[in-house]
Design a protein that fits this description.
Elements: E1 9-11, H1 12-26, H2 29-33, H3 37-40, E2 46-48, H4 49-63, H5 68-72, H6 82-88, H7 94-108, E3 112-119, E4 122-129, H8 134-156, E5 164-166, H9 177-182, E6 185-187, E7 193-198, H10 199-204, H11 220-227, H12 235-246, H13 254-261, H14 265-274, H15 279-297, H16 302-308, H17 314-325, H18 329-339
Parallel strand pairs: 5-6
Antiparallel strand pairs: 1-2, 3-4, 4-7, 5-7
Helix pairs in contact: 7-8, 12-15, 13-14, 15-17, 16-17
């Protein structure tokens, strides 16, 4: 059970999949969202689900269409989120792809449960989360339905439709309108999101030539970051990840983090003190001990690293880095090269 002020996260790449699809369907959604490129280009960075919901709300106001997720979801292209596409869609058969998808989903969004259960000749895939209120839960379920349906169609053909789709909320649109969008019966007011499909389809279809996008490389340190999504009730860890999110908008500020957690800055400080942390410590650990060395080792220019971490100028980054490591970024790199 989530506690008060708990934080659930999703990967930026998942949000980007839908934002790009929205832009393709309605136009101007990416520009109107006005999110920093440094965030949108970092697909595995964690983003608070409340922030995703807020931006989706702004988009819904813009397009003025309650079926915006159902309609735009048809334009989702899994290859726009390369880690998801490469891991899942490279499987030689659909059965393996579904196993990978369910396992990977736990690293894409916290506080979510996905599973597949066989019932006679029907495979029932389900998705459930408690991170959203009723209407948001319905929209989230529609989005996840599209993710799963696009995976099925990658193997079974673009015209494939499941037996039925079950959604956790009251009907949207006119009677039969969403059914027509998905190409199958839609059952409303379900306990959770479910997609029912035939076991025969699962067993008989394979991919002839799995396509893998080879431009993205993942090193060993990144793998640890990718699988390490924080428990939403681990307060200090959530603040730590919020700092990583906030740096896209400038140097992380206590007030900005507190606002995202819907608590006062003083409450945030007191909660961290109770766990024997301070906000400034977590900022230092995330920016200077975790991210800065990684970025420098990856070959980013010192000026670029400072910019990515939210510092106003290279001089302020160099000063902070030297205070933390007893060496300038340039000296740090020189020492690394000497150790090779």
């Amino acid at each position: 059970m989530a506690s008060v002020n708990s934080v659930a996260f999703g990967r930026v790449g998942v949000f980007w999949l839908f934002l790009k699809a929205m832009d393709d369907y309605y136009g101007d959604c990416i520009s109107n969202a006005n999110l920093p490129d440094s965030l949108l280009n970092d697909h595995m960075r964690l983003m608070p689900l409340t922030e995703m919901t807020r931006y989706l709300g702004l988009i819904e106001e813009q397009v003025d269409d309650e079926l915006f997720i159902a309609k735009a979801g048809a334009n989702i292209q899994l290859q726009n989120f390369i880690p998801l596409h490469n891991i899942v869609c490279s499987a030689p058969v659909l059965f393996t792809a579904l196993i990978r998808f369910n396992a990977l989903f736990k690293t894409l969004q916290s506080d979510s449960e996905v599973k597949a259960v066989r019932s006679g000749n029907i495979l029932k895939w389900s998705y459930n989360t408690e991170s959203f209120v009723a209407q948001e839960r319905l929209q989230d379920g529609i989005f996840c339905t599209w993710l799963y349906l696009h995976l099925l169609r990658h193997y079974l053909g673009e015209q494939y439709s499941p037996i039925s789709i079950h959604l956790p909320g009251s009907r949207l649109g006119k009677a039969g309108e969403v059914d027509a969008i998905f190409g199958c019966d839609v059952v409303w007011n379900a306990k959770q999101t479910e997609i029912w499909c035939s076991i025969d389809a699962l067993e008989q279809h394979i991919v002839n030539k799995p396509k893998v996008i080879t431009t993205a490389r993942i090193n060993q340190l990144q793998v640890i970051d990718y699988i390490n999504i924080p428990d939403e009730n681990d307060f200090a860890r959530c603040v730590y990840e919020l700092i990583n999110y906030a740096r896209a908008f400038g140097y992380p500020k206590l007030e900005f983090i507190a606002e995202m957690m819907m608590i006062s800055p003083l409450t945030l400080q007191r909660r961290l003190q109770k766990e024997q942390y301070s906000f400034s410590e977590l900022v230092k650990y995330q920016l200077l001990y975790n991210l800065a060395p990684q970025m420098l080792q990856e070959g980013l220019l010192i000026e670029k690293v400072g910019e990515e971490l939210g510092f106003n100028n290279p001089q302020s980054f160099t000063k902070a880095f030297k205070k933390a490591h007893n060496s300038t970024p340039k000296q740090y790199l020189e020492n690394l090269n000497e150790c090779k």
